[in-house]
Design a protein that fits this description.
heterodimer; A: alpha/beta; six-stranded mixed beta sheet; four-stranded antiparallel beta sheet; 13 helices; about 25% strand; elongated; B: mainly alpha; 11 helices; about 0% strand; globular
């Protein structure tokens, strides 16, 4: 449905897109992920027919975005990040204008406008002036505008930016519903949103595709394996605790990550979830347990690794630290993005508790 | 074509949603009406002279008002992201620019139609002006206003700041009106001839305002208007490369 081949776009000396190629099949929901200035918006603008490419080609529904731009524009619903709406118009007038641009006959307009207003949940605000609507409602109206011609392809640039958490959940649910019948390409800074909505992720960084695949595959491949995290008071002999933990069946490596107050922090790496075995040892030896959690790597780590050149979690866990039992070494500030390396909380753990 | 019509319709309605169009209409009608009545009295009731005078006043009003009407049409939309919306809708760049230009020109066609009200009032007093002269004068004024609107649309496409667009358009309008008149003062005969050929006021006053619709002069206005519209479309296309 979308085919991008060796696409390059320069703005003067700045290369916004550098030889980018990818394909999106019919009915796929693809998340475009990347830091600010990575080239996401530029790629979307080229696909929507707003910007021409410096070199390379792109097609949507079999039509070239440059040579057959009008054909492409008839088949896509594009929602730019700026949420472009005429403030002086009523919601229904804005939709009517958009329908006329798409040469929709009057009967179709009368049927389709209430349909999309229902779909995005603003039917009761149809007669309101757009300028008087809240940011979230404007976002919904802009989405209604994009959906109005019933496009085969939806290109949504940051569809939830500026929304509060509740509105984000609503829009996310709406997008999941839309994705059932359409090809959707959406960009977002909010990684859990991409994980929840998209079956495929394209990570774009410095104008190039840095990763492409299903979120769970990317996480497994790039962010390292899951592990058990343990915070407990194990007494003065933490070496003994290390020995006990290493003796658990299937455990490959146990790392001592230093102390948080009086609690020692361990990471138990190996095959499968060994929380029950660790819990049994804690009960048997009388360790005062504060946290026993199963830590799964997230898309956020993949994103951080690809865009900030961080090491994957499994590699960052230096075996030397386990042997010496020393406190964690000082790390550059970017590590705070890694949820495994949280700063010490004043009291109590905040991980995914067992 | 339906896209162009939709844009024209939206732009014209948007003009009347804001206070600018109403303020301009009010001020222009007050000024033009007052000067018309004054001229009618000064010319001892010569209806043709007074009507011609009203047209000339409307012409100079258009020089200043057209940039105000067109200044936001592209520049403001570019800033608000609405141009991205329009340029990704299934309409050509030319349709976007032409729709906006036609909306501005329609506003001036409505504004200039005040002369028909003057004609009606005078007819009620038994001083009916020649209807042909009124229609020809109105047509000339609409053509001149169309040229100023095309210049304003072009200026609006060049910048993202409406005031800069308005200021540039006024300067361009004045240059186009005054340069040929200055050229006519030149000692060189070829410069004088060139000035005469490009003199907007002369094209208006020696044809349309006398009740004659000269196709050569119609083409003169349409050609200049077409040139600036073409430049405006190119400027909008150029925005895609910035």
């Amino acid at each position: 449905m979308i085919r991008v081949s060796h696409l390059t776009r320069r703005f003067g000396a700045h290369v916004a897109l550098d030889d980018v190629s990818f394909e999106v099949g019919q009915g796929e929901v693809v998340g475009f992920l990347g830091p600010n200035g990575a080239g996401k918006t530029t790629a979307m603008r080229i696909l929507a027919g707003y910007l021409p490419a410096t070199s390379g080609s792109a097609s949507v529904a079999g039509f070239d975005v440059l040579g057959q731009s009008l054909e492409v524009r008839r088949r896509i619903g594009y929602l730019p990040e700026s949420v472009p709406l005429y403030r002086e118009h009523r919601v229904v007038e804005m939709l009517d204008f958009h329908a006329r641009l798409h040469r929709m006959p009057r009967a179709r307009r009368r049927q389709r406008i209430p349909e999309v207003l229902d779909q995005v949940g603003v039917r009761d605000r149809a007669r309101d002036l757009i300028g008087s609507l809240s940011r979230g409602l404007k976002q919904r109206v802009a989405l209604a505008v994009a959906l109005l011609p019933d496009p085969a392809v939806l290109i949504l640039d940051e569809p939830t930016s500026g929304l509060d958490p509740l509105q984000r959940i609503e829009v996310r649910a709406l997008l999941r519903g839309l994705a059932e019948r359409r090809t959707v390409l959406l960009s977002s800074h909010i990684l859990p949103e991409i994980e929840a909505t998209c079956r495929r992720v394209l990570v774009i960084h410095r104008g190039r595709i840095a990763a492409d695949g299903a979120p769970q595959d990317l996480v497994a491949k790039l962010a390292g394996a899951s592990f058990v995290r343990l915070e407990a008071v194990v007494g003065p002999d933490f070496e003994k605790a290390l020995r006990l933990l290493r003796a658990i069946d299937g455990v490959r490596e146990v790392l001592h990550r230093g102390k948080l107050g009086i609690h020692d922090v361990f990471e138990v790496h190996g095959e499968g979830d060994s929380r029950e075995d660790v819990g049994a040892i804690a009960a048997r030896t009388g360790w005062a347990l504060r946290e026993l959690s199963w830590q799964r790597p997230t898309l956020e780590q993949v994103f951080a690794r690809l865009t900030l050149d961080l090491e994957p979690a499994a590699q960052s866990a230096a075996p030397a630290a386990a042997a010496s039992g020393a406190a964690p070494a000082a790390r550059p500030p970017v590590v705070t993005l890694n949820p495994f390396e949280r700063p010490p909380p004043p009291r109590g753990g905040s991980g995914q508790s067992a | 074509m339906s896209g162009l019509f939709a844009i024209w319709r939206r732009e014209l309605s948007a003009l009347f949603f804001g206070p600018l169009a109403w303020t301009l209409l009010c001020l222009a009608l007050l000024l033009d009406g007052r000067l018309f009545v004054g001229e009618l009295a000064a010319s001892s009731g010569d209806v043709d002279v007074a009507t011609r005078y009203a047209f000339v006043v409307s012409f100079y009003i258009a020089i200043l008002a057209a940039p105000l009407v067109t200044m936001r049409m592209i520049s403001e939309e570019s800033r608000a992201g609405l141009l991205e919306y329009l340029l990704t809708a299934p309409v050509t760049d030319a349709a976007v620019v032409t729709g906006k230009f036609l909306a501005a020109t329609s506003f001036f066609a409505i504004l200039s139609a005040a002369v028909f009200v003057y004609g009606g009032v005078l007819a009620a007093q038994g001083l009916a002006p020649d209807p042909g002269t009124l229609v020809a004068g109105w047509l000339g004024l609409v053509l001149a206003s169309a040229l100023f609107c095309a210049i304003g649309t072009f200026a609006s496409a060049l910048t993202s700041t409406p005031m800069v667009a308005a200021f540039s358009a006024v300067l361009l309008d004045l240059a186009l009106v005054l340069a040929p008149q200055l050229a006519r003062l030149s000692p060189a005969p070829w410069v004088q001839r060139l000035g005469a050929r490009f003199d907007l006021t002369d094209h208006l006053s020696s044809s349309f305002l006398l009740g004659a619709v000269d196709t050569a002069r119609v083409v003169f206005f349409l050609a200049w208007t077409g040139l600036f519209l073409f430049l405006a479309v190119r400027a909008v296309e150029g925005r895609r490369w910035r």
